[in-house]
Amino acid sequence: MNLLDTDRIRQDFPVLHRTVTGGHPLVYLDNAASTQRPRAVIEAMDECYLNYYSNVHRGIHMLSEQSTRAYEAARRTTADFLNAASAREIIFTAGTTAAINTVARAWGDANISAGDGILLLISEHHANIVPWHQLAARTGCRVEFIPIDENFEITDTVVAEYLERHRPKLFAFGAASNTLGSEYPVQRWTKLAHDIGATVLIDAAQAAPHQRIDVQAWEADFLVFSGHKVCGPTGIGVLYGKQALLEEMPAFLGGGGMILNVTTDGFTTHELPEKFEAGTPPIVEAIGLAVALKYLSEIGLDRIHEHEQLLGRKVDAGLRAIEGVRVIGPSADKKAGINSFVIENVHAHDVSQFLDARGVAVRAGHHCTMPLHQAIGVTATARASCYLYNTLEEVDVLLAAVADVRARFAKTGRRRRSRSLSESGLAEPQSTEPSS
Amino acid sequence: MPQPQDSPNDQDIYQEHVLDHYEDPYNRGSLATATHAHDGKNPLCGDKIHVDLRLDEQGRVADAWFDGDGCVISQASASMLLEAIEGKTVEEVAAFSAENMLQLFGPQLTPNRQKCCLLSWKVLQGALMRPIGTDAAPCVTENDDELDSENKTAFGGPSLSEEQ
Asked: Considering only alpha carbons, which residue of chain A is nearest residue B159?
């Protein structure tokens, strides 16, 4: 396994060269929340706005033709990135959340009824939980969760058991957990779900940036991911769906662009993929996304994954070696660049604030996985997530800072100034203390 | 020189008097004789505060106690607040604004962390209106922007936690 040439890669990301709090160099380890963009993505979007921007699929004029060509080329690039059978299976959405909601509304409302089951993992992001709770409220279906074991893992046996027990119509799961960092065997679990007749939705928001995706080999029915986590723009995501499924699904958002014909009595929907792209789509974002996907593909997703694993292992081992730190996630061989942790007697916000003062950007909170945090019994964790531009030296900065956190917040027998004053008779005594 | 948009460093935020209140809080616990009480949480990060008050016949906050769980800022600010308002009239406490709270805390906070600081202030304001034993009591205040739409103090973005 080899590290990437980060000296060269970092030249492509202008933001990485700035300093932050206290004049420290930025150590950006919040990549699971959102990645930074290479210059090529920013320039491609500028190029469109500056030179040829227009609405797509509408104007019979040169700019519209040019924008339409670039937008549709972005769709083909995305189809290649996922190894989709056809570019018609690629729907541009506002993000992963919008993509999952589209499936829940369009496919869910048409296929799910009272008593049907939706099976998820306890580690799902809220984006892959709430739309199913909403579907349950509309239809009366059940939403079931597969738990993690004491090692934060989910085995094939448990997946098979839950599929057999609940016989869900849909198995929707994250290919990688944004909190635990676990990377799940997508192809095997998809096969298990298909064996009992379930449809499978794969949330690849945390997989698309880090590993090669092959929707045909995986036999994914639906797969979704976001632009901003793959070095692309915000405001764009992708919904992949097998053509037959997308064709059967009713349209979700109604409006311009998704119709063939509209009368005072009704409408007929356009063909794929326009059927699911009502309104002016994220044109420039799609163009930027395609450049980002090409950028990652040229470096190679397998090499990026190796690089993250090497960094992630060092983070994992380093954290486990610090007294009072508990890693919330499986062993390093089952995850890549994401490591969540808690520090005894220190709230995650304070950890994050302390690291920020040393230039280190991590995430603190529940990372939109409240059910997982509840299952583990913690309210908030800190999370360091590495990407292709991070270095071993940055990991050292992180670990050195984490090692100092407990000492900073350790109790040292402090007294409030007002109490000291009152006890020395210099201040008014407080009112009588009630029983507590 | 630090720019206004820079984050304060941890020396700036975790000043001595803040850590003093965190470690040696004022009236932490529950108040058996409470006449008013309220709970609040910052749902996005898990900070929790419970406030118990005893209002006397003159309309003063005779006793003010809190309990909770969360970061240094949320817990230290609760201690400072209750110490400051105990003995004041209900009108005086109601007039104590979010701006006053941030001033009382002292160190300048970024909008995301102002939420941590203002949680106890919101719970205290809620407690004034919730006598124990009425229907209003069980309600939990969730720390979001709605209560402060007319207040000049910005609570910042959707918080540290709601973006993946």
From this structure: A365
DSSP H/E element including A381:
strand A381-385
Are the beta carbons of B31 and A434 separated by less than 8 Å?
yes
Give residues with Cβ within 8 angstroms of A345, minimum separation 6. Answer: A324, A406, A409, A410, A411
CA distance linking residue A93 with residue A80, whole number of Å: 18
For residue A2, the number of C-alpha atoms closer than 13 Å in the C-beta half-sphere is 7
Q: How many CB pairs under 8 A join A and B?
A: 121
Picking from B23, B83, B160, the nearest residue to A364 by CB comes out as B160
Q: How far, in Å, CA of A114 to CA of A108, rounded? A: 12
Q: Rounded to two decimals, what is the model's pTM?
A: 0.90
- Annotated catalytic, A141? no
Question: Tokens 């660049």 correspond to what residue?
Answer: A337
Rounded CA gap, A58 and A333, in Å?
50
**Separation between Cα atoms, residue B164 and residue A62, nearest integer Å:** 40
Predicted pLDDT at A48: 98
Q: Which residue in A301, A291, A305 sits closest to A83, CA to CA? A: A301
Nearest by CB to residue A416, choosing from B14, B26, B63, is B26
Nearest CA in chain B to A358: B9
Classify residue A104 by burial, with Cβ atoms within 10 Å: 0-12, 13-18, 19+.
Answer: buried
State the pLDDT at residue B135: 57
Residues of A in CB contact (< 8 Å) with B are: 20-22, 32-34, 125, 178, 205, 229, 347-350, 352-354, 356-357, 363-368, 373, 379-380, 408-409, 411-419, 430-431, 433-436
Asked if the Cβ–Cβ distance from A353 to B163 is below 8 Å, we say: no
ipTM, interface predicted TM-score of the complex? 0.80
Give me A261's structure tokens. Answer: 């014909």
Q: Which of A353, A365, A412 sits opposite B13 (nearest CB)?
A: A353
Give Cα separations from A435 to B33, B56, B58, B61, B63 (angstroms): 8, 17, 22, 16, 11
pLDDT at A315 over 90: yes
Q: With 60 as the cut, is the pLDDT of residue B137 above it?
A: no
Residues A93, A222: Cα–Cα separation, whole Å: 13
**Residue B146 pLDDT level (bands cut at 50, 70, 90):** very low
